[in-house]
Amino acid sequence: MSRVPGWIGRLGAGLSEMGERLNEKRREEDADSDADESNDPANGEQEHVPPPPAYAPDVAARPDPVAALPWGMRVAAEAGWRLLVLAGTLWVLMRVISAVQLVVLAFVAALLITALLQPTVARLRRLGLPRGLATAVTAILGFVIMGLVGWFVVWQVMENADELSGQVQDGIEDLRKWLLNSPFHVTEDQINDIAKSLREAVGANTEELTSAGLEGVTVIVETLTGLLLAMFSTLFLLYDGKRIWQWFLKLVPANARPGIAGAGPRAWRTLTAYVRGTVIVAMIDAIFIGLGIYFLGVPMAVPLAVIIFLASFVPLVGAVVSGALAVVVALVTQGVFTAVMALAVVLAVQQIEGHILQPFILGRAVRVHPLAVILSVAAGGMVAGIGGAVVAVPLVAVTNSVVGYLRSYSREAALKKRAPQPQGTTAVDAAQERSAGQA
Q1: Are the CB atoms for 333 and 164 separated by under 8 Å?
Q2: CA angle, residues 245, 248, 249, in degrees to nearest 5
Q3: E-assigned strands of 25-159?
Q4: Segment Disordered: which positions (predicted)?
């Protein structure tokens, strides 16, 4: 009986040891099952990948696409889409202007007339006249003078039309005789064939000429409408131009308002100087060329001089066309020698104008490169005809003045931001000087 308790104790110890082994084995199985679940792809986790062997080459990661592009290509792309946005904006703007072309040209003409007449209004106001009376007197005198000039040209052409027609026929006959006796060996049959071809061309295009005449009636109606719009716009600009400008400034964002407010008066001074200088130069051209062709015996010298004056408002092109018209009239009415002398007079006056009068009268404020003048006149003529050619150069001159001022203004503003602010007694002195200057 003494051995029974010892045996029972050893049996209990063995059972306890066996239970601990079973628990440990169960814990190991649980740990293995948890690891399998964590590496299962269905649970959203990636399977553990062993590292590559030491002999395998390293694979470089793909670079960022922006960093892979060359710097020049990135700059070109950035500039390209901005240029596309600007081109689209300009295209929409041109479409809008084309839709309301008559209104735009009338308003631009009113601006040019206002720039010509506004100094007279200011002078009358300094003499003591009220603003309304000074505006009315200036506008009435200006429009009456322009109307008289137009009436005089039409009247002179109508009065001399018969005489000019006879002289043109005589000139054509003289030209035919000269061709027959010239060294070019032109025969009578060739001249008759040319005349027959011209008559047939006119007869074949009768319908086109008739439709052009009907379109001419529409053009006359549109011209009268544009003249009325220009007259009313001129009256309001002369009377209330300052308030209109202040109202326009309210539409500009507050950050850009100081720069635009400073650029506006400079643009107006440039436009005024351009209009005054162009009128003076056109008058000099008309007077001297008119006197030259008058002493040469060319008919309708005075109407031709007025046409030269009006055509001079189209830079370069207008002077050439009007001068060529005077030479052609001299050729068909007075002969080759008179035409050559008229050409010499026109060229001499235009050379004096281009090299002396324009630089002296217009000055540096409205100086535009001749290439810019030619391109702007061509573009303006393509977009809006004669009116576009007239307003193209002043628009370029004003734009040049505004851009130059805004560039200098932004540069000065940047320098003021970078400059150190005064402190201490210096700040007090600067504040006093600023208040004194404002006072």
Answers
A1: yes
A2: 90
A3: none
A4: 18-57, 417-439
The residue type found at 157 is V
Cα 59 from chain centre:
56
Q: Contacts for 344-348 with beta carbons within 8 Å, 24 or more apart?
A: 345/288, 345/289, 345/292, 345/293, 345/296, 346/289, 346/292, 347/323
83-92, 96-105, 119-128, 413-422: segment of lowest average pLDDT: 413-422
Model confidence pLDDT, tens digit, residues 333-355: 777 788 888 888 888 888 887 77
- Which amino acid is residue 236, in one-letter code? F
User: And the tokens for 253?
Assistant: 């964002």
Domain count, the chain: 1
Contact in structure between 155 and 302 (CB atoms under 8 Å): no
* Among the listed residues 398, 59, 220, the one whose alpha carbon sits nearest the alpha carbon of residue 212: 220
- Give the position of tokens 């003409």: 109
C-beta of residue 332 within 8 angstroms of C-beta of residue 171: yes
For residue 157, the tally of other CB atoms under 10 A from its CB is 15
Name the residue among 317, 311, 319 with its Cα closest to residue 374: 317
- Domain for residue 69, yes or no? no
pLDDT-derived band at 407, boundaries 50, 70, 90: confident
Residue 5, in any domain of the structure = no
H/E stretch holding 223 reads helix 206-251
Contact 257, 249 (CB under 8 A): yes
The structure tokens listed for 347 are 């060229």
pLDDT at 214 over 70: no
Residue 339 to residue 160: CA distance in whole angstroms: 19
Label residue 285 exposed, middle or buried (CB < 10 Å: 0-12, 13-18, 19+): buried
Cα distances from 308 to residues 116, 136, 185, 313, in angstroms, run: 19, 29, 37, 9
Residue range 67-103, pLDDT digits in tens = 777 888 888 888 888 999 998 998 888 888 778 878 8
pLDDT band at 209, cuts 50/70/90?
very low
| Inter-residue contact 121 to 135 (CB < 8 Å) | yes
Contact between 209 and 92 under an 8 Å Cβ cutoff? The reply is no
Query: Running DSSP on this structure, what letter comes out for residue 439?
Result: -
**CB atoms near residue 257 (< 10 Å):** 13
Q: Which residue has the tokens 């940047």?
A: 414
With 0-12 CB in 10 A as exposed, 13-18 as middle and 19+ as buried, what is 87? Answer: exposed
Rounded to two decimals, the pTM is 0.65
Of 226, 236, 279, nearest to 387 by C-alpha is 226
Decide if 367 is inside a domain. yes
- Kindly state whether residue 189 falls inside one of the protein's structural domains: yes
